[in-house]
Amino acid sequence: MNSEALIRHSATDGGRSESRHAEPEFVPSASDRGPIADRHPGPGPALVAATHGDAAPAEDVDSRMSTAGGILVDRAGLWDAEALGDVAAATFPLACPPDLAAADIEAFIAEALSGDRFGEYLTDPRRIVLKAADDSGIVGYTMLVTGDPVEPVVAHAVSVRPALELNKMYVLPGHHGGEVGGALMRAAIDTAHETGCAALWLGVNQENLRAQRFYGKHGFRIVGTRAFTVGAVRCRDYVMQRTL
Ligand SMILES: CC(C)(COP(=O)(O)OP(=O)(O)OC[C@H]1O[C@@H](n2cnc3c(N)ncnc32)[C@H](O)[C@@H]1OP(=O)(O)O)[C@@H](O)C(=O)NCCC(=O)NCCS
């Protein structure tokens, strides 16, 4: 498979409304991190082998393109790191419970969603970051993580293997209820198929009803619960799974 292959998808979906809820995020351990300059900063998307069970490597993802609705979903590259950090900082607060302190949200953004951190995600062979863009730039993104669930409670809840984690799913507020979320979700599902996975799983804050509704529309069902820390606060997530 061409290592410069791109994932490109189009959009068609519906929905609306705003609220503040929390979401599961993969916070890499110290061993996950390293200087960006030491990692793949090449001219094309960082398509590198995944390291999960029986699933195919991430570089085997198909190449497709569509621009319906003016939204293009494509694999993000290292050059997108700062823009993804900006979108993440603008959208993560929307996923947080209304009573979560701003300081905790800001701490999480600084720790897990900076441009530097996205640079690490984008050069991590276990991760696939998909961006949705229109003429204005990136308007949403999702991050997929290969490999078996690490947390025992999640490993117990997720019943199908190999499973791909839908680690992040964020759309700028002006595009909620439009085509972007659905296009990203379809790209994530296609990527799961293409990497040989039999299921997608995710964590979502138990108060994030909009996201739960969105995931439910796309075939996810609650299979368990877990704790997820934002700043100094342990939030409660549902674990959801979608078999493919
Ligand atoms: C989650 C997200 C990607 C979904 O994209 P979207 O464009 O809003 O999704 P949709 O509009 O297709 O679906 C949302 C559904 O929730 C419904 N909804 C909106 N607000 C709601 C609320 N407060 N309670 C329950 N349902 C709600 C919508 O009506 C829609 O359902 P419908 O299509 O049956 O009418 C987007 O809302 C987002 O980025 N939110 C902020 C970040 C976030 O929470 N990310 C998920 C973290 S796990």
TrEMBL record:
Protein known as: N-acetyltransferase domain-containing protein
Chain positions covered by the region annotation Disordered: 1-62
GO molecular function: acyltransferase activity, transferring groups other than amino-acyl groups
Keyword Acyltransferase: yes
Organism phylogeny: Bacteria, Bacillati, Actinomycetota, Actinomycetes, Mycobacteriales
Basic and acidic residues bias spans: 1-24
Annotated N-acetyltransferase domain residues: 92-244
Organism, as annotated: Nocardia aurantia
Keyword list, A-Z: Acyltransferase, Transferase
